[in-house]
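Fill in residues.
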């Protein structure tokens, strides 16, 4: 059992190294521009060993999307958990997102670059993750708008508007020069105002029967 666990741990370490190496290699390039051999060499394994972990570079890219998005989704859920006041949720969500973008900028550059210009399986994986973001948010909006008799479609529409706003904020934050942190603060203030505007609109919106 110990030997089996050690083998599994070694395999997981190699898998993580492949992901880390790939993320570093594509810091200024697209996923499609790097080769399997390049990734294997930088990870310290022979190319044939790569296939013990992934069937292709596309499959590695899909796993990298999950590696980037899963903790972000969990963090966003935590920011909303147990909250009842829109103002608290908006402020905490924006600040949490800003901290995550700052500490994982390489991941966000990968996601924004590959969202439209990447290989098909990776684009679809990103689109699926964004739909899951919207779905998570829709569930929370249903709780926060209880009594307003909103339809599921309208709740999803509002969630999609919020996710789109956050994506725009991510793009803007990635362009902020570290020498001018005040520009980042302006972007966060704008994001909060945009989300509050959506919430204000939700307060007067009535779903059609």
């Amino acid at each position: 059992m110990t030997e089996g666990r050690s083998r599994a741990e070694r395999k997981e370490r190699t898998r993580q190294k492949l992901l880390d190496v790939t993320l570093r290699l594509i810091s200024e390039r697209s996923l499609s521009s790097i080769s399997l051999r390049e990734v294997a060499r930088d990870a310290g394994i022979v190319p044939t060993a790569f296939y013990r972990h992934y069937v292709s570079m596309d499959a590695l890219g899909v796993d990298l999307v999950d590696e980037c998005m899963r903790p972000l989704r969990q963090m966003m859920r935590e920011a909303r958990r147990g909250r009842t006041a829109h103002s608290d949720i908006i402020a905490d969500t924006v600040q949490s997102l800003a901290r995550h973008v700052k500490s994982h900028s390489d991941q966000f550059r990968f996601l924004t670059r590959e969202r439209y210009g990447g290989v098909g399986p990776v684009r679809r994986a990103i689109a699926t993750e964004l739909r899951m973001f919207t779905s998570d948010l829709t569930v929370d909006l249903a709780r926060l708008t209880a009594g307003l008799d909103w339809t599921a479609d309208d709740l999803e529409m509002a969630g999609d508007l919020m996710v789109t706003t956050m994506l725009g904020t991510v793009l803007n934050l990635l362009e902020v020069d570290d020498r001018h942190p005040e520009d980042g603060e302006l972007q966060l203030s704008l994001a909060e105002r945009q989300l509050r505007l959506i919430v204000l609109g939700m307060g007067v919106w009535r779903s059609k029967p």
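The chain has a mean pLDDT of 89.
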